Each structure stands twice: as C-alpha cells, then as structure tokens.
Amino acid sequence: MSRHAAAVPDEIDRRMIEFCGTGPVAAGVRYHLSTGGNRVRARLGLESAQALGLPQPVAEACSCGPELLHNASLVHDDLQDRDTARRGHPAVWQRFGPAAAVSVGDLMISAAFASAAGHPDPARAIALLHDAITRTARGQARDLMKPRLDLASYRELAAEKTGPLFALPVRLALAAAGEKGDDRAVEIGDTLALAYQVLDDIRDRDADVSAGRINVCRLLVPLDQGVAQARLVAHEALRDVCDRAADLPGQAGTSFCNLADQMHSTLTEHANAA
C-alpha cells in the first residue's frame, strides 16, 4: 500500500447514518456529518484493515465506530466550550439547541457500539470502544479543568484526549485479523496525538493566546520562538510514529505513516508560509 491519503468512500458516511437510524436526533447527526471533515479515523480503519487483508464489511466495522466516536466528541466539545461554529457552519448545539446536541452526541456513541456487530470479535470490539471512550472522556474532563501545564503534562493531555481515537481503528483491525500489536498501536496513537495537537495549536496560536486557552506555543517561551520549537516537537513525534509503526504486523502501520506524512507536509507548508 502506498503512503498517501486514500479517499474515504461515501459508503462510510452512509453506514454511519444507517447506524443512527431516523428521527429528529438522527437528523442532527446527518446535519453534523454533512458539514464536512476529513474522516481521518475512518481512513485509518480502512487502510489498516485492507493492509491486513480483511474483507470490506470488516474494514467498515473498523472505520465507522471510531469515526462516530470522534464526531460525537466534536458535538459535545462544541457544547462544553460554547463554540458556535464547526467547519464554517453553526455547531449542532447552536442549530438545534444544547439539549438536542447532547442527544446527537449520545446517539453517535450508541451507533459506534452498534457498528461492533460487524466485527469478527464483537466482544473485543466493544471492549476496545469502551476503552477509547473512557480515556477520551478523562482527557476532555482534564482539559476543561484548565490546568497549568508544562510540556510533559501537555503531552499527557494530548495523549488522553486525542490518542485513543487515533489508535482505535488500527486496534480494531488488528483484533479482527487476530494479530498482535495492540499495545504498540496505543503508543503510536498517543504519539500521533501529540503531533496533531501541536499542529492544531500552531494554527490557532493567536486566538488561543488572546483567549487564554492552553497552547503549546505558550509553553515554549519566548512566544516568538514558540512556533519554531513547536514544529520541532511535532516533527520528532511524527518520526517516532513511523519508526514504531514499522513494528506492526502485516503493514497495518502504513495507515499511521500515511497520516504522519500528511501532517509533516502541512507543518512544512505552514513554515514556508510564515
């Protein structure tokens, strides 16, 4: 499998919508999904499952759950942070109301568990989904507490809040194929999360500094040097991702490397534009 960003087929969105059913809450799900997004976690699931030789229905089971959980977290995050827009459109809570947004996120979480029915080992898939939700919720709660951070605790927060849903699709694919490497996939997801969060912080530096939000560039002082140092942190993490991914069986780690390559290119483009 070549290291490039594969397109996520429309079938994944169709399946996610099917899992959510019909009715007013499902309409909120359809609205949220229609606003866009890169479907990164779905792509990780598809690529790793394909690398392991799994059939398409199983690949979809490894993709839909993580993507649904990620989007549920976005809906809930926007409500908790009172962010009024997402992807250039009104956030779900802004469009449908706060109470409806809670239900929309909850429905996507439930639908993620429904997707586990298509996994060859549903019990294991359910356990992996629960583990990812638990760690993500812990990270989100910690973030909402607005802790004072140093770089080490920033790494931990990024790993808790973002890492589990990066690792989950690959963990599901490994479990479906009966392969080892689960612990390594978790480690890679946590490392990838650091680079992802740093890249996000570089993009949002000025807005975060003005609002007093957590941003890695504020930890790497003086501030005018923070962005350059943040890029170094991200590049180091991305190299580590690809080094560790080589240890995963059946080229399942190629999906991680594809994403790392994309992020590396984005960092380079940002540096050239600065």
List the defining traits of the structure above.
single chain, 274 residues, mainly alpha, Farnesyl Diphosphate Synthase, two-stranded antiparallel sheet, 13 helices, globular, disordered N terminus
Short description:
The protein has helices spanning 10-20, 24-34, 40-51, 56-81, 92-96, 98-115, 122-144, 151-177, 182-203, 205-211, 216-219, 223-245, 254-273, and strands at 85-86, 89-90. The chain is an all-alpha fold and 274 residues long.
Largest sheet: 2 strands, antiparallel
The CATH superfamily bears the name Farnesyl Diphosphate Synthase
> Helices and strands: which structural class?
mainly alpha
Q: Please trace the helix and strand order, writing H or E for each element.
A: HHHHEEHHHHHHHHH
For the record, the count of structural domains works out to 1
Widest sheet, order of strands? 1-2
As for the CATH topology, it is: Farnesyl Diphosphate Synthase
The N- to C-terminal Cα distance equals 33 Å
Indicate the mean pLDDT.
91
CATH class: Mainly Alpha
Q: At CATH's second level, what is the architecture?
A: Orthogonal Bundle
Residues in helix, %: over 70%
The fraction of residues in strands falls at under 5%
Judging from the principal axes of the Cα atoms, what is the shape? globular
- List how many beta strands DSSP finds: 2
